[in-house]
Amino acid sequence: MSEIDRRVLQTIVETANDHFFIVSGDGQIVDISPGAEAVYGVSREELLSSSVQQLQAAGVLKPSITLEVMRTRKPAQLMQVTGTGRRVIAEAYPVFVEGKLERIISRSRDLTDLQLLQDEYALLQKRFNEHLKRSQAAPDAEEQALDDALDDLKVRSSVMREIALLLKRVAPSDANVLMLGESGVGKTAFAKQLHRWSQRCDGPFIEVNCAAIPENLFESEMFGYQPGAFSGAARQGKAGLLEQAEGGTLFLDEIGELPLLMQTKLLKVIQDGSLTRLGDTRPRRVDFRLVVATNQDLAKQVEAGLFRLDLYYRLNVIPVTLPPLRDRREDIPVLVEACLRRLNQRYGRQKILDTRVWSTLMGSDWPGNVRELENWLERAWLSSPTDQIEVPAFHSSAAHSYAESLPGDSHSSPAALEAHETLKQYLARLECETLAEVSKTLPSTYAIAERLGISQSSVVRRLQRYGIKIDK
What we know:
Elements: H1 3-15, E1 19-24, E2 29-32, H2 36-40, H3 44-48, H4 52-57, H5 65-72, E3 76-81, E4 87-97, E5 100-110, H6 112-134, H7 139-153, H8 158-170, E6 177-180, H9 187-197, E7 205-209, H10 215-223, E8 224-225, E9 238-239, H11 241-244, E10 249-253, H12 260-272, E11 274-275, E12 284-285, E13 289-294, H13 298-303, H14 309-315, E14 318-321, H15 332-347, E15 352-353, H16 357-363, H17 369-383, E16 388-389, H18 397-405, H19 423-439, H20 445-452, H21 456-466
Parallel strand pairs: 6-13, 6-14, 7-10, 10-13, 15-16
Antiparallel strand pairs: 1-2, 1-5, 3-4, 4-5, 8-9, 11-12
Keywords: Aromatic hydrocarbons catabolism, ATP-binding, DNA-binding, Nucleotide-binding, Transcription, Transcription regulation
InterPro entries: AAA+_ATPase, AAA_lid_NorR, Homeodomain-like_sf, HTH_TyrR, P-loop_NTPase, PAS, PAS-like_dom_sf, Sigma_54_int
Protein name: HTH-type transcriptional regulatory protein TyrR
């Protein structure tokens, strides 16, 4: 083995979360990873001078998985209780050279902390349920406040009413809230309403899009920095977004996009209630209510190794799933009316909807949810030459359905599905055409993102995918 390969292997062993044992064919310990001594309660020197037979006899390994592999000459897996009382899951594999058992490689994963975390999570859920039972007082006042908030949120459906009621009841606590749901369902709006209901309503509401901050700037933006911490740092230093949320609510949108390294740092802040700026050695206390949101399945990301399990448990104290617009169509009319009022006020004209539009609005699935509905309405408003809104300027699946429902040939219609073109290819073509159109008039990816209601990083990826350059 070359020196480079040896160092690579050493780094892998020393930085892994699992604890490794390398044992000779007769049971003598050859090497161990550094973290093993803390789990098994024996110093590295003692372990290296021992055999697995001696460690099992001393109760350090209960039982020894290596002895099982030596006996069966096959891979094995089992649960162990170490001499320190920690529960680990261990697995071991034989290494043969010309039929002779030369080495046994075993690795163990400590499950004790995970069990403690699960117990803590269960306790938080129990306290939350008790809090819900105590919060039934003054139902009339609560109902009135809820109705007022629902008017602001522009929702009428019973399912959204139940979600709002849940958020109102948990608002006085500082429990972490995880907002789940498709893109555009209103997670940010409900997070802001949760803040208004909370005891921190007089504090700041700091909104952070985790996908919009470049990874190399994330730590300085979130944690802040001291003067001279790096080249280009502000002379007076800077408080990060975590500090700016002091006494208020920190809303982390698209939390599933958070890099693994930053996940570790965020977990430490949640656990310790303090942070350290870049270039500083002094920890600073922080006090904020944490609300996060994602349209991804975090549990699957945990399984794929893209999201930390311990952070997932910390965030998933109060999970709230907002349903898509297609599952609460009774909210569409009030959303349309509110959007139309805003458009009329913005552009200084009083336009109304053609009555035939309503069948399209109520019948479409709106995969982009509220955001797509509002964008479609704005396109329709801008493309209508009269004060009666009929056909949108840019084509969408909703516009297609509506155009087909109109009599005659006087209305423009979207590009037809080409021969042998799949739905995925068709939608990609429409997306490309829309991006190309808005790129001709808007000066930056941030302006395009705001116009289309998506993140700036999503705009950059899509423009690169289609080879589109901004005409500015």
